Amino acid sequence: MAPETAPTTTDAPPGDEPLIRHWIAGEATAGSPAAFGDVFDPATGRVAKRVAYASPDDVDAAVAAARAAFESWRDVSLTRRTVILFRFRELLNQRADELAAIITAEHGKVLSDARGEVARGLEVVEFACGAPNLLKGQFSEEVSSQVDVHSIRQPLGVAAIISPFNFPCMVPCWFFPIAIAAGNAVILKPSEKDPSAANWFARLWAEAGLPPGVFNVVHGDKIAVDRLLEHPGVSSVSFVGSTPIARYVYETATAAGKRVQALGGAKNHMVVLPDADLDQAADAAINAGFGSAGERCMAISALVAVGPIADDLVDRIADRIGGLSVGDGRGDPDMGPLITRAHRDKVASYLDAGVDAGATLAVDGRKHEITGEESGFWLGPTLFDRVTPDMALYTDEIFGPVLSVLRVETYDDALALLNANPYGNGCAIFTNDGAAARRFEREVEVGMVGINVAIPVPVAYYSFGGWKSSLFGDTHAHGLEGVHFFTRGKVVTSRWFPSSAGVNLQFPKNE
Ligand code: NAD
Questions:
Q1: What is the pLDDT of residue 15?
Q2: Which atom of ligand 1 is nearest to the CA of 165?
Q3: Are 229 and 218 in contact, with CB atoms under 8 Å apart?
Q4: What is the rounded distance in angstroms from the CA atom of residue 44 to the CA atom of residue 194?
Q5: Where residue 394 sits, what CATH number does that domain have?
Q6: What does each C-alpha distance from 25 to 17, 22, 59, 212, 215 come to in angstroms?
Q7: Do residues 52 and 111 share a domain?
Q8: 484 in the same domain as 389
Q9: pTM for the full model?
Q10: Are the C-beta atoms of residues 103 and 197 closer than 8 Å to each other?
Q11: Are residue 282 and residue 138 in the same domain, yes or no?
């Protein structure tokens, strides 16, 4: 069963707002839209733009363009591909502020955070610039008499990338630089909530000299996604979003014979042991809990206080929350608005539900001072204490500025709590005890682990990905796993000999 999405569209054609169109075969096109969606400025609550939602025909046109481009792009030499990648890297680096401003206007995150996201995306572009080295095969001479063996990695074809709203730059960058460097063509279906960054990338690729059709963008919702998942011209699907949709995408696209990596939601824990530096831990909890208004897949939402430190830690966090500024991200306060009013209201609903369930509301984000237009999608940072594992505050991925403190007696209790959680994206431990940290990194069932690092997002040359319900598929994003995802291996055994060796029906032996 496909998960339902809340309707966010109208059939009404756009009014005065600019219309965001698809990018197919090197040109912007509105196609024949299935609908039009509103794109908000979250800091004012106003509709700033509209976006055309692709119909199945629009997706078909993008796939046809990508397939045609793939046939020649795969034959472009590594040297020429790399020249284009380096140009793209230079342009992205020069214009990072332009992209950050686009992200802040549609997502709401503060400018410095948007710049940070661009920097992390740039890292993957830089990694992909090493394609000649990353795509190297191996060669073994004389494995048998006059027989050599070598391996090669070849592109898959058309790579579909379906991305979430919370990182309109970094998440697509986890995939498309590597896919393109490896010789694939790409169709990016960004979130309909903040779609402009994808078109900005398309124009940048064109400026860098990428042939038309190698990088395409289609906008839209489930209709566009479903067509990509079933289309026979699409070879692979890289999805990032909430767990129910990730599971659906994985099951649907693998059934259609595609290679799939589907990264899902998260509930990230930060364990604080009694010997930890509590000021360091409190600073880290604030940064990881409330940065980007908690709308990060690596945000810490469950803080697990071990032993007698809980009261002290909660006080230190509460004090720091009082000093956080919340307002329009363009002015670069500490925290901006949430993505939509519906999402803001859903996150806020956890505050009353948490109190009703018996948790202690230590800091109420609804009372936080906001410097911004009243109509923005605001919710200040919220801290709950004495949260228990049965409460919705803990079981749900809230994806907002709500930090829950759970109190446990021992390290073993903390570990059992983490390992029982269905998600396994990121986690952290704060301690000065090296042996405890080492034990934690070995025993915790989570894909990305931080030791005194609250947001352990791996660098581009390692791979990003969670365990359990946080990732469906075998391959994590970027690093060598990313290179493998976007290529197929082939092993060639060859013999060159001066005269016939004669007929021999035996299974070939190496000698
Ligand atoms: P989402 O699941 O609502 O949307 C993700 C993508 O799926 C979007 O492009 C959207 O248009 C599309 N989509 C939405 N409903 C669909 C449906 N019914 N069928 C097919 N496609 C559909 O996620 P979101 O709200 O944009 O992003 C937040 C979520 O993403 C959070 O759960 C967060 O944890 C997760 N996330 C995970 C990672 C990770 O690395 N694991 C990274 C970033 C975000």
A1: 67
A2: 26
A3: no
A4: 15
A5: 3.40.309.10
A6: 25, 10, 12, 5, 8
A7: yes
A8: no
A9: 0.96
A10: yes
A11: no
Full residue range of the structural domain in which residue 36 is found? 9-265+469-491
165 Cβ below 6 A of ligand 1? yes
Helix H or strand E segment including 355: helix 341-357
Q: In angstroms, rounded to a whole number, what is the distance separating the alpha carbons of residues 334 and 336?
A: 7
Residue 363 phi, psi (nearest 5): -140, 125
- 461 part of a folded domain: no
Cα separation values, 455 from 299, 310, 385, Å: 7, 21, 21
- Which of 39, 106, 225 to probe ligand 1 with, by most ligand atoms within 8 A of CB? 225
Those residues of the chain that have pLDDT short of 70 are 1-15
Q: Which helix (H) or strand (E) holds 305?
A: strand 300-306
Residues 486 and 428 in one domain: no
Q: Which atom of ligand 1 is nearest to the CA of 226?
A: 20
Instruction: Mark whether 297 is an active-site residue.
Output: yes
Let me know whether 170 and 85 are in one domain: yes
pLDDT tens digits for range 367-408: 999 999 999 999 999 999 999 999 999 999 999 999 999 999
State the pLDDT at residue 322: 97
Angstrom CA distances, 332 to 108, 171, 406, stand at 10, 22, 31
Is residue 407 in a domain? Answer: yes
**387 in any annotated domain:** yes
Is the same domain home to 416 and 347?
A: yes
H or E element: which one contains 311? helix 310-322
Instruction: State residue 14's pLDDT score.
Output: 56
pLDDT value of residue 450: 98
Ligand 1 centroid – CA 486 distance (Å)? 21
Identity of the residue numbered 267: K
Query: What is the per-residue pLDDT across 25-46, written as a single tens digit (0 to 9) for each?
Result: 999 999 998 799 999 999 999 9
